[in-house]
């Protein structure tokens, strides 16, 4: 800072207006703190404007497309049905705009000062903000870094956002791919693959690491494989990408099997799941003695504090699972800690959520993890085909799986694929957080008919008590749990 230059004084400055940043700002304002929030683009960040919300708009539309055949069974006749991607883009724009305006209104109502500009640290208690031609210096007591992360594609590909797409550009397409190639086995790849298949695109899914269960519990992975086959999504497992060639009309991906056999897959478009890099290059944190992880993310403790105690960091910039739910929690904890309250982040029971068709939700230990940690476990499965409400709504694919420790009967994990999974997993999360036992899941009333009853029956199946599951299947499940 130039000698004699006047610095504006602020209590708390938050850099980044995504889910972590604006939740930190609003929570801090609720606690009586004076807040300045700096965002260089749009409030809501990548999640609201390019990622979470746009992708879930597409997933919602895809589910409606998948429901069309069932609508006819209900006696509702549609003279003609077609999918218009342009109209969906208009709807996506409307939804994101409404949500963004809602965040802006909440910030205003909480008397949060909003500054549009680029921020960088000048010292441990000062930042500079560049807004157009203006440059101002601010002195702060506390700061929260919520600048997110940037997509980093594999070294063998260049994203052109025309034929070769990442998660930001795939949901901006104006024309539907005739054949979409999807590279990746994360939740984003599964959402893209199942959504565009529902819209009518042919889809091929390329899994380079060969994880046949997609990182889920084995039962969920097997059911997902069955559903992908039913949807006619071609899956290439244990294939490494050797070469990608793009032309005006097509993208050709040459794959190599573990045995060295070459296979070429052609499509109209290629979607690529990417790794992430912390958005810190413009922050000037090299001027500070701030600790970073081996991967280059900002290292934080359970209170979202960096190695400089009065500077906090939340969300994707801290690494780990790149999930808005984690950013939101970290943002609130940072605000509460700054305000002098006792608060902490614990990601032990952070759920895995996929808005695929059908949706997937999981929390706690998988069967494989449970077997490594406990001598004796129980496994309870319940297929949604046996659930009355799943039959009513025509969504019988999927299952619910509950894992417990046999001696204590403590629930260790809850895994779901199928209708209602994302809403129902909250029961599993609360259960694991409160260390529930089998009887705690079996005792309450479950609405009838509802998909919720699947959780009850999966828990009852732990000891062969499920009513809507044949004795043979329950005995088989119980025998497998004991013998493995």
TrEMBL record:
Disulfide bonds join 47-52. Residues 351-458 form the Pyridine nucleotide-disulphide oxidoreductase dimerisation domain. FAD binds at residues 56, 316. The active site is at 448 (proton acceptor). GO terms for molecular function: dihydrolipoyl dehydrogenase (NADH) activity; flavin adenine dinucleotide binding. Transmembrane segments: none annotated. It comes from Thermaerobacillus caldiproteolyticus. This is Dihydrolipoyl dehydrogenase. It holds the Pfam family Pyr_redox_dim. Belongs to the class-I pyridine nucleotide-disulfide oxidoreductase family. Binds 1 FAD per subunit. The active site is a redox-active disulfide bond. PANTHER family: DIHYDROLIPOYL DEHYDROGENASE, MITOCHONDRIAL, DISULFIDE OXIDOREDUCTASE. It catalyses: N(6)-[(R)-dihydrolipoyl]-L-lysyl-[protein] + NAD(+) = N(6)-[(R)-lipoyl]-L-lysyl-[protein] + NADH + H(+). It comes from the Bacteria. One of its GO terms (cellular component) is cytoplasm. One of its GO terms (biological process) is 2-oxoglutarate metabolic process. Its cofactor is FAD. SUPFAM superfamilies: FAD/NAD(P)-binding domain, FAD/NAD-linked reductases, dimerisation (C-terminal) domain. Residues 11-331 form the FAD/NAD(P)-binding domain. Keywords: Disulfide bond, FAD, Flavoprotein, NAD, Nucleotide-binding, Oxidoreductase, Redox-active center. Its EC number is 1.8.1.4.
């Amino acid at each position: 800072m130039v000698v004699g230059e006047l610095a504006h004084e602020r209590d708390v400055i938050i850099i980044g207006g995504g889910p972590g940043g604006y939740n930190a700002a609003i929570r801090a304002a609720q606690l009586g703190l004076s807040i300045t929030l700096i965002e260089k683009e749009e409030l809501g960040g990548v999640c609201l404007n390019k990622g979470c919300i746009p992708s879930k708009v597409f997933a919602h539309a895809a589910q409606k497309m998948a429901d069309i055949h069932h609508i006819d069974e209900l006696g509702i006749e549609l003279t003609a049905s077609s999918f218009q991607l342009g109209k969906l883009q208009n709807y996506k724009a409307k939804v994101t705009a409404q949500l963004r305006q809602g965040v802006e209104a909440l910030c205003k109502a909480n008397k949060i000062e909003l500054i549009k500009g680029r921020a960088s640290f000048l010292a441990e208690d000062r930042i500079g903000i560049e807004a157009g031609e203006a440059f101002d210096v601010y002195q702060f007591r506390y700061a929260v870094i919520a600048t997110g992360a940037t997509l980093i594609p594999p070294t063998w590909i260049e994203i052109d956002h025309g034929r070769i797409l990442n998660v930001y550009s795939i949901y901006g397409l104006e024309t539907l791919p005739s054949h979409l190639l999807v590279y990746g086995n994360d939740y984003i790849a599964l959402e893209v693959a199942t959504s565009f298949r529902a819209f009518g695109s042919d889809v091929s899914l390329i899994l380079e690491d060969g994880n046949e269960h997609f990182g889920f519990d084995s039962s969920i992975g097997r059911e997902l494989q069955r559903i992908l086959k039913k949807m006619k999504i071609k899956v290439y497992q244990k294939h490494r990408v050797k070469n990608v060639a793009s032309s005006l009309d097509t993208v050709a991906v040459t794959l190599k099997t573990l045995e060295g056999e070459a296979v070429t897959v052609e499509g109209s478009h290629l979607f690529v799941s990417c790794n992430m890099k912390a958005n810190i290059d413009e922050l000037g944190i090299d001027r500070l003695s701030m600790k970073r992880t081996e991967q280059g993310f900002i290292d934080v403790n359970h209170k979202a504090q960096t190695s400089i105690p009065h500077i906090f960091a939340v969300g994707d910039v801290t690494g780990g699972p790149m999930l808005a739910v984690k950013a939101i929690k970290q943002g609130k904890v940072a605000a509460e800690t700054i305000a002098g309250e006792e608060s902490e982040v614990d990601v032990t029971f952070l759920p895995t959520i996929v808005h695929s068709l059908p949706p997937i939700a999981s929390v706690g230990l998988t069967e494989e993890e449970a077997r490594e940690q406990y001598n004796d476990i129980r496994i309870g499965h319940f297929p949604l085909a046996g659930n009355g409400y799943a039959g009513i709504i025509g969504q019988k694919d999927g299952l619910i799986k509950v894992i417990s420790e046999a001696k204590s009967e403590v629930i260790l994990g809850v895994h779901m694929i199928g209708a209602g999974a994302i809403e129902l997993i909250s029961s599993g999360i609360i259960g694991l957080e409160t260390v529930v036992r089998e009887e705690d899941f079996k005792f309450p009333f479950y609405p009838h008919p509802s998909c919720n009853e699947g959780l009850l029956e999966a828990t009852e199946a732990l000891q062969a008590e499920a009513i809507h599951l044949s004795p043979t299947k329950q005995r088989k499940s119980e025998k497998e749990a004991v013998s493995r």
